[in-house]
Amino acid sequence: MTGKCARSSLSRYLDGEFCDIKDHLRQEISQCDLFKSSSYDLTLDETRDLTAERLHFVLQLPEMRRHLKDQVKERQKAFISKSLGIAEVLCTADIATGVKMGVVCGLFGGAITNLGSPEQKEKWYLPVTELQFTGMFAMTERGHGSNVRGILTEARYEPSSQEFVIHTPCEDAKKMYIGNAMKGNYATVFAQLLVDGESQGPHCFIVPIRDGEGVMYPGVTAIDMKHKEGLHGVDNGILVFDNVRIPRENLLSKFGSVSPDGKYHSPIQNKGKRFNAMLAALTPTRLALTVQAMAAMKLGLIIAVRYSHSRRQFGPRDQEEVKIIEHQTQYLRLMPHLAAALALTFTTRFAAEMMDEAVHHGRDLLNSRSLQALIAGLKAYSTWENLACLQDCRECTGGMGFMMENRIPALKCDSDVFVTFEGDNVVMLQVVVRELMTQYTKQFESSAMFGLLKTWTSSASDSLRTSFLGFSTDKVGNLAFLLKAVSYRERVLQRSLAARLYTKVEKNKNEFFGAWNSCLHHVTSLALAHIHRVTLEQFALAVQACQVSADQTLLTKFCLLHGTSLVYQERAWYLEHSYLTPSTSKMIRTQLLELCKSVKDDALKVVSDFNIPSCCVQAPIAGVANPRAEWAFYLAPEHPDQPQEPKTLSKL
Amino acid sequence: MTGKCARSSLSRYLDGEFCDIKDHLRQEISQCDLFKSSSYDLTLDETRDLTAERLHFVLQLPEMRRHLKDQVKERQKAFISKSLGIAEVLCTADIATGVKMGVVCGLFGGAITNLGSPEQKEKWYLPVTELQFTGMFAMTERGHGSNVRGILTEARYEPSSQEFVIHTPCEDAKKMYIGNAMKGNYATVFAQLLVDGESQGPHCFIVPIRDGEGVMYPGVTAIDMKHKEGLHGVDNGILVFDNVRIPRENLLSKFGSVSPDGKYHSPIQNKGKRFNAMLAALTPTRLALTVQAMAAMKLGLIIAVRYSHSRRQFGPRDQEEVKIIEHQTQYLRLMPHLAAALALTFTTRFAAEMMDEAVHHGRDLLNSRSLQALIAGLKAYSTWENLACLQDCRECTGGMGFMMENRIPALKCDSDVFVTFEGDNVVMLQVVVRELMTQYTKQFESSAMFGLLKTWTSSASDSLRTSFLGFSTDKVGNLAFLLKAVSYRERVLQRSLAARLYTKVEKNKNEFFGAWNSCLHHVTSLALAHIHRVTLEQFALAVQACQVSADQTLLTKFCLLHGTSLVYQERAWYLEHSYLTPSTSKMIRTQLLELCKSVKDDALKVVSDFNIPSCCVQAPIAGVANPRAEWAFYLAPEHPDQPQEPKTLSKL
């Protein structure tokens, strides 16, 4: 299947199983005028129209339509992995288009296909794949963004008319930040279901917003939120419902339905569990954010690495100035991000495959605690790592990096919101820890849990503490050492958090929210430690699985760099816990500097093997000329050692 | 003099000596329609026109004209401090206008007043204060941004016509990123002076660019660089000179002049020293960047702190949700930035006073090594700190922080370039260390220097190392402990850097650039350690000098927080050097969490005492309504304990 891709072995390895459809999409985008470098003079409306046209272009591609129709089928094999591959390619072309597709297919489509009955999927999502209408996803409210459980929008069932009445009871209940709100036709609206005066908790309803001519459905108001930091192509708006009537069939019925005479039925009795099940069904969309952040990161790295290899500044007296990549600070700032981008590539693939596995076998995503933890944590880690990476790319390209032509500013602004939307990162980290801690018990606050915590805190801990302490100093550069270090940190943080919570809640009878809040810094540290560990493990496994020896050697260096960088960042913690001695800690720093230096030339090959077509890179400082900014052009550097392999896409 | 300001004692203290002219400017801006919340739909040209109008409005104010005329006078008392106060106020209203004023008055005006003769000041700068024309500052070239010594533009003297011929010999010599290039009338152009075939190094020339009607001067081309990440109101462009002829009198002659018959004369013989003297004369402008970054930071903090005190999310079961400022992660992210903003306020004031002192007494700024180091380091530290602060403000305000109405996005984008322009921050940090090391000797690479380094590395070091080790653990929260810690770090880093350089260059005969480059991470660490120490010391002195006991108590807490935060950030280093034990390091973390918690309510008073008028704050989430985004409005919180003092400006 990968035979058709005529490019380097590493590039194929990084692209993964779905390189054919990804290549196809790259080709289509490269040939499409809509994706040509666009003007920065467009008005907001023009930018939104362009984004809508771009999305329409992608959705009408026969391969895409075939793929999207699979979404309606049950237990479709590898659907998520394939979708994420597509999402990454689309985001390298334009993040706003990628996000808009995420709203229409991932969120609106995902809500219907995951929460709806087979008939509902046919009726409400199949037309989207046939370009008949688009949808939006209305969960967030003014009063409840991160704390979505407390949403206030009401859906009262009226047996006489067999209708639900969707209503916004107050200012705080207004649906906010809704993507595609100014253009879409239908919304999946989350509202508290009220049947016969009794609340059944949040459910999801299909609410018509406007028809094909743009005429609003009675009682629906959409307010344009207009200008944002980035993602100008995505039309975010506010939805207000004034007793909007929809048919009984518009309640997505997988987790709850109402009979014509007003009897509520659900396969899950507990309201909290029911809502969790609904949210869990939306997990794949969360992973898409990681992929979108990765796309932005890779673009930033291509641009910064290429420019660093062609721009010269400073140097030995009376000699030619050196390439700026030679400056120690330059490679020290860029190389760890490149290693992280590789780690994320493999970890995301792993998470997607786990999810596809679960879906294919009809397993409940809610019960895959470790998968939930991984995806929430990946969302936070990847989106923050992306921002840090793009900021370094921007600074490492100096004034040129501040110019719009060179793409980095827009990448930063477009992807900035990723750290707070679809679950604020700080909240995501709390999800990670909650999931980690409830792997063993069903109710976090049950005494069973605390019984367990109690045992946990007193047993096995000291053997854990000392088991890795006997390393000799020459092992610091060893991957095994690094893997053990990140794993040790996660376990100690977990154990000590459990002990602290146990003391506060069980012994001192503190109220739970206050106890948890007073440990929040600890909680977020643990969550990140967990994700760090998983990314390093997945990177190491991918190195092991790599079949081409030269590629394996290259990836090994970056894997070591990723591990070293993770340990270096947290060396204070390791020193505090006597896991590193002062001298091993200094060795870690030396090792970081040396590894960064050793991969700085390889970096050119790696960014080239990200296989992003020129039309998507666009930046003149990365060697892609732009007639509007000839002054910005720098010839793309060739890799000094490697003869260039045939790259079919390089001239697109 | 400060009697006229009817506001809180802390607000007066933070505003400093020039609160009257600052208040006057605040009042004028508040009443001026040009500064009213502007549309985000403006085209680039419209935005630039608006910025030009805003600048014109400010320059025509009688107080401003009086102040600017002082710039032409020699040894004007406190001119720099007063100018910086004005710059800060203007930047809180609009950063682009502040930057544009920096270009016209600080850079163009500064070049003329610092490098020109009295007649040249009269001729080329006085008209600017009379609104007859504006200017630009043309130093940076395509090939030489940070490494400005290597600029390529030529100025050949032609005795026959008594003219200089200004010429751009190649692509890399084009003047780039020049602010006001599309609107300004004259440029101060830095070019290599060639007299009778001999190069005399870079000098500064007045070159006419376009007349009042916009007609270009013969041989001059200006290319619009158009769209950037931010600062849309500043028209950056490229200048190309094709044998442009200017009169002999247009060479700014303080550090070098050419007689009619082509004899070069300069008070400074050494070319390198001469150029350094020219650059040193421009130091005040560099400090302006710190002030501009501070303005952005303070605005971000006002918005994020107020919103955090009114927005509620999550909370104990069955109770009202808590204000988000109560979340541990929220106050942990925001409070250290607030402490840093205060530290920067006092440190900048100190640096400005030092500079005013030097100027007033006619001292050579070049020879104030510690001042040069301070200003270069402050530029780097403050602009990075600003970006980190604004990013946290953006994330701590969630989706609201991503909306343009709430100001943070534009603050981020406008101030992002500060970290690379007017001296890339990484280069600035190298300037710091060069200045620190040459405080003792005139030539860095001279053997005298290395003789000194040799002594330095072997003597006194161990007593230094141990002298602070005997602290008992209860002193960690003591300001004296924190001051000693940051000072110890600076000295050890300096000593070890000297030792490393000495070994590489003198013992192992490494080439200097390579040796320096291999220590670059060490160099940048030392530079930041230096600035950290100075900011903490200046903060501590300002606390001491504060006359009002309640204010002093408040500032003491923030000063402790700043010191704790600085030590916490670098605790790995302290652990590596056994300056902290694992348990004291953990105490530092606990102390950081507790201090952040203890000041979170005081934060409301502090941001209010920044005394920024509502019309400049603008953000609906900070309690300033905007009719275009009613949905974003959150009532500004009142400080829970403090009764509000009369604030004359709060209703502006």
TrEMBL record, chains A, B:
Keywords: FAD, Flavoprotein, Oxidoreductase. Pfam families: ACOX, ACOX_C_alpha1, Acyl-CoA_dh_M. Gene3D superfamilies: Butyryl-CoA Dehydrogenase, subunit A, domain 2, Butyryl-CoA Dehydrogenase, subunit A, domain 3. Residues 137-244 form the Acyl-CoA oxidase/dehydrogenase middle domain. GO terms for cellular component: peroxisome. Residues 281-437 form the Acyl-CoA oxidase C-alpha1 domain. FAD binds at residues 140, 179. InterPro entries: ACOX_C_alpha1 (IPR055060), Acyl-CoA_Oxase/DH_mid-dom (IPR006091), Acyl-CoA_Oxase/DH_mid-dom_sf (IPR046373), Acyl-CoA_oxidase (IPR012258), Acyl-CoA_oxidase_C (IPR002655), AcylCo_DH-like_C (IPR036250), AcylCoA_DH/oxidase_NM_dom_sf (IPR009100). Its cofactor is FAD. GO terms for molecular function: acyl-CoA oxidase activity; FAD binding; fatty acid binding. GO terms for biological process: fatty acid beta-oxidation using acyl-CoA oxidase; lipid homeostasis. Belongs to the acyl-CoA oxidase family. This is Acyl-coenzyme A oxidase.
